[in-house]
Amino acid sequence: MAMAAEKESTGEVDLESALLPSSSVESLPLLAHSTRSRQHSHLRSLRRSASNTTSQIAIVGSDPCPIESLDYELIENEEFLQQDWRSRGRAHILRYVVLKWTLCFLLGALAGAAGFLTNLAIENIAGVKFVVTSNMMLADRHLWAFGVFAASNFVLTMFAAVITAFFAPAAAGSGIPEVKAYLNGVDAPEIFSPRTLAVKVVGCIAAVSSSLHVGKAGPLVHTGACIASILGQGGSRKYRLTCKWLRYFKNDRDRRDLVTCGSAAGVAAAFRAPVGGVLFALEAVSSWWRSALLWRAFFTTAVVAVVLRALIDICHRGKCGLFGKGGLIMFDVTSDTIAYHLPDLPPVIILGIGGGILGSFYNFFLEKVLRAYNLINEKGYGYKLLLAATISICTSCCIFGLPWLASCSPCPTGISEACPSIGSYGIAAPSGLFIPVILTGATYGRLVGMLMGSRSTLDHSLFAVLGSASLLGGSMRMTVSVCVILLELTNNLLLLPLVMLVLLISKTVADALNANIYDILVKLKGFPYLETHAEPYMRQLTVSDVVTGPLLMFNGIEKVGNIVHVLKTTGHHGFPVVDEPPFSDSSVLYGLILRAHLLILLKKRVFLPSRSLFGIDVSKQFSADDFAKRGSGKHDDIEDIKLTAEDMEMFIDLHPFTNTSPYTVVETMSLAKALILFREVGLRHLLVVPKSSSRAPVVGILTRHDFMPEHVLGLHPSLLKSRWKRLRFGKTSLNKVFCDLC
Amino acid sequence: MAMAAEKESTGEVDLESALLPSSSVESLPLLAHSTRSRQHSHLRSLRRSASNTTSQIAIVGSDPCPIESLDYELIENEEFLQQDWRSRGRAHILRYVVLKWTLCFLLGALAGAAGFLTNLAIENIAGVKFVVTSNMMLADRHLWAFGVFAASNFVLTMFAAVITAFFAPAAAGSGIPEVKAYLNGVDAPEIFSPRTLAVKVVGCIAAVSSSLHVGKAGPLVHTGACIASILGQGGSRKYRLTCKWLRYFKNDRDRRDLVTCGSAAGVAAAFRAPVGGVLFALEAVSSWWRSALLWRAFFTTAVVAVVLRALIDICHRGKCGLFGKGGLIMFDVTSDTIAYHLPDLPPVIILGIGGGILGSFYNFFLEKVLRAYNLINEKGYGYKLLLAATISICTSCCIFGLPWLASCSPCPTGISEACPSIGSYGIAAPSGLFIPVILTGATYGRLVGMLMGSRSTLDHSLFAVLGSASLLGGSMRMTVSVCVILLELTNNLLLLPLVMLVLLISKTVADALNANIYDILVKLKGFPYLETHAEPYMRQLTVSDVVTGPLLMFNGIEKVGNIVHVLKTTGHHGFPVVDEPPFSDSSVLYGLILRAHLLILLKKRVFLPSRSLFGIDVSKQFSADDFAKRGSGKHDDIEDIKLTAEDMEMFIDLHPFTNTSPYTVVETMSLAKALILFREVGLRHLLVVPKSSSRAPVVGILTRHDFMPEHVLGLHPSLLKSRWKRLRFGKTSLNKVFCDLC
């Protein structure tokens, strides 16, 4: 095992440690390393303020949990190449293709069914509640009516909160930030587990039925992603529901594709908008997209549409209780003939500007409220439930009480603004953002329409649609997908030009004020989201400026004790493997080995008695399944592997299990350029090699965290004081435009 | 200058040339190199059959012309970093952002206007022709009518053919293959020049007016791309229409974004389908896509929609001659209430299957016809014009004659199938494919509907829409974009489920038979199109297996004579720069220098008298504009640079102009994995470095051509005989499914 120092930001090299032949370090006790690195980091701290300020913990739902990066790199080692089914001819490829489309079909069918069941349950529960309350009101028993209304809401909310808090905290909230982070390459345990799926569906039904101002679109996206992930990993190992055939999909790339299709299916199920679902997945949640994926996502959402239509057809025969009397969101503008002229444009433009301002204000306020809720939630289960209970009672009071304040005119539709949608989110229950925004926006639009009065010839229902569009544009900042979803909801294409205009205006206005709602949530939850574009200051830094040491490496044939020690004392997930003389003519970077693969080697005890190249043939002891990527959030732990003192003195030949062609960049490359490679190819580890061949063959490893602005600015606080700070962290309105639109 | 041998496919290294210190080769006459390389390649030919079978020539329009790769890499050299406006603060960034959106606005406005003018001119010319002919027919002067009809068609066709053949051969054909190839990173001269733009618009008007069965969608996409490219390069230097401010856009990345928006604007203008335009650009033409681009393309197409609406509104006041009496394609199903039930599905499924088969047959037949036309076109201008004339007369005869054969029933709409749309394409005139496919598909659908008779309750107009969808799905293989374009054309969202079903079926059926029409055209034209997915055999090859030598390198300070000789004798566009002792402690890869930059250095004569590091400060002699990428297809030529014998003995310090951080891969990486990097990051050159540091610091350069199946299989003909051949080159139907859908 060897240690090489990283290059300093000034470009000077710590020659002492870099020139130290790495093989000679091997015999040093490991404690010495850490002492050395401590001295080293002390030296470094003269120039840098902190070693790593980015956390490996993110808030999933309402609880903090450890996170991990995903790896989309092709791992090329001897073992994998031998086992790889892609090189095994037609039968495997055929099976893979058939399975892939079957999975998409199943995914569409299940997501459609889940969407339908959610809707059915919500409408029946909310419907019964409504009927009972209304009957009591008609009998003039207002206090009783309020009591029943508030009590049922309270019970439903508490039920949702309790199952979420105690059984699956990862199911709390909208779920879209988690899905978005996953598709960006950040994995958190339990976000796609069967338990989360179950709680998500049941909790969403309870939360929406309880008259909270929350939606089901987000939860359905999360549900779709859960179904996709569970299908892809071939069921759950925990519940002994696995399928051998699905081993083709046990890697992050195929899983990413499935989860993308799953999120498209979720939106399609929530709005009955198959095209809108595909575009939503493309525009709002996915970080990587290919043409082939468009086609597959389209297939999935088409299945969703067919399943939904079939199930609704069955329901229309009257076997589904109160279903179908409310239905999905319906803007009643289908029958109207839309005609608009130049004089109609000013109100529409005003509506768009207002929607943009309101949308960004909504985002701003939501962030503040969620921060406050997080403080409360951190105090424990009791406080979580108390928060949920308080919100439920407040909401009941608002909904029941506010109509009394207004006269019986069409005006009261305006009140759901006065009872802000914002206040009802952030509690530990599955709840979506999309539909509240649509409803609030529709109310806002209708209000504007009424204020316009006779000055505009446009229909009020049209104003409602445009209001929704403006608030969606201002809050979620989606364009094409919102356009298509609204068209699919309203079933009227003549609206298109006006919807586009409103969206363009509101998005532009809101982008000048703050970030979109999902980016705010992803950031608030602490996911290390990798942006496509580089920050301007990243062009001024080289990769060696951000690499933090000490770098831990293994020899091609490494002592078991060293491996165990390194795995126990560090949290790194990848280690360079370096061959030293006499095993090679000079110090050569053999490749990169993953922690997960090392753990498998230790578990299987493929040990050699001595440091020799010609050991036993280890490849026959493994099948491809051994190295298949485990399900989301699951991995082995070094603490679970028990080895004897004798084992510790033995050796492992790492060569057959090392990825021999990791992607590398030269240490003088700018951080911005390295980010392009890291982001576009979807890497987990990126090796940094020295410019000169006379030094150690690798000088550092870049991971996702090294590209995070917090980390980079933590290492180089001087950048914060420079002009780049003003560009990125300033409060002026144009900054966001720069970063978003460049 | 030095030469290093590439590694052989067996993994052995030609030690003699690899270990030869590169500095010592410098004094060898260059002739010796080629002798050596000839010997070397003779040795190599024992294992490999050919050195490079991919052509650097492609057929643009109907003429062959040289092509070049585009480069999306960030070039990091001292000169560029100093000049780069991104590091120059807010004013530049603000100007960039404002300009970018202004360009999109102008692009939308101009593309909208071009679409409108094209439509206006076509309808007036065709309308006058129709009125005159009809009047003669009504007066029973049938022969005269035919004479006028055929003569006007002949004149129009010949006019289109003459201007295309003599003034802008690049304007021939649909133009979408050229745009698709450009967006994949292949540039051909003149494809986006002002002359091509002018001929494209005028020629398209003449060709469509001449009753040829051709469309305007493809030409409008090309027109949009032309406008985008010309706007982005700040006008044309040739016509002295340039703008200094636009230097921010003088690089391939920004130009790619603009051209993508331009192609979206073209489709939006052709069909008045703004959302469909964006999706068409995403699905059918672009190779790289980002979320930010979606938003920008959407803005552009929104402008197109507004401009079109405004212009049409003006026309409706009756100042545009015959315009508006025909209008854009209109499926008259808006007013119908669409109702369909389970029994309606079988005919729809049959329609889809039939459409898939017909679509793939259309593609197959089109390819054959175009191959035949190419043979004719190659013989010279006379043959080109003769071909156009023949087709014009045949088409006139068909259109005029065939209705006489049928009785006066609705049936004759079926005849445009008998007069195949295919026969009228491929002549040297701007002509699109999209609308012929829509029309033929509509005819096919109506025919199926009539054959169904009373067995189906669906409307015949609905069958026409579904027929169009099935043929589009079968021929172009687009899904989401065709869906949305058809919805925007028919203005009826209730069709969506049926359209989706038909598209899914026809695309699946057709994919099993052959490739999509644009891929066939791109291949036929010889563009080296870089696919997203790797072929299965690419996993079996390492990058060193496909690198063809000899590799030409430069020293950090290189003799002018050597540079000139290399530039004159090779066509390479990038050369590694290697520092040798005593300028560095060992042989070090300093970076990569581009041919274009070398030419600028030679032109400016920034020469040093001797080989010393501390020469004159060269950086002040250059501005960022000098290194800006020239317009599409334009570049300096080494033959234009006159240097004296004295100059030839001097030196150039290449260091400040060398890209110091080119992307590199290790020689043992599989070709499939290198392709991922090459394709995702959008590279032009990818350096291959050796595994061991004891050898020359670079062993080869990969370019686009090295990833082309023809090149790889030319080098390794044994792969053709292996099972991979069957997978890729076999005739069985599943192969295409594997490659397309994996």
UniProtKB/TrEMBL annotation, chains A, B:
Q: Which domain of life does the UniProt lineage start with?
A: Eukaryota
CDD domains (alphabetical): CBS_pair_voltage-gated_CLC_euk_bac (cd04591)
Say yes or no: keyword Nuclease present: no
Looking up PROSITE patterns in the UniProt record yields:
CBS
Q: Name one GO cellular component term.
A: chloride channel complex
InterPro entries per UniProt: CBS_dom, CBS_dom_sf, Cl-channel/antiporter, Cl-channel_core, Cl_channel_pln, ClC
Q: Which residues form the CBS domain?
A: 658-718
Localization annotation: Membrane
Extract the Pfam families matched here. CBS (PF00571), Voltage_CLC (PF00654)
Q: Which segments cross the bilayer?
A: 96-122, 142-168, 258-281, 293-311, 323-342, 348-365, 385-405, 425-449, 461-487, 493-513
Q: Does the keyword Membrane apply?
A: yes
| Keywords on record | CBS domain, Chloride, Chloride channel, Ion channel, Ion transport, Membrane, Repeat, Transmembrane, Transmembrane helix, Transport, Voltage-gated channel
Write down the membrane topology. Multi-pass membrane protein
Checking SUPFAM superfamilies in the record gives:
CBS-domain pair, Clc chloride channel
Q: Which GO terms describe its molecular function?
A: voltage-gated chloride channel activity
PANTHER family from the entry?
A: CHLORIDE CHANNEL PROTEIN CLC FAMILY MEMBER, CHLORIDE CHANNEL-LIKE PROTEIN CLC-G-RELATED
Question: Which family is it part of?
Answer: Belongs to the chloride channel (TC 2.A.49) family.
User: Would you tell me the protein name for this molecule?
Assistant: Chloride channel protein
Gene that specifies this protein: LOC109703996
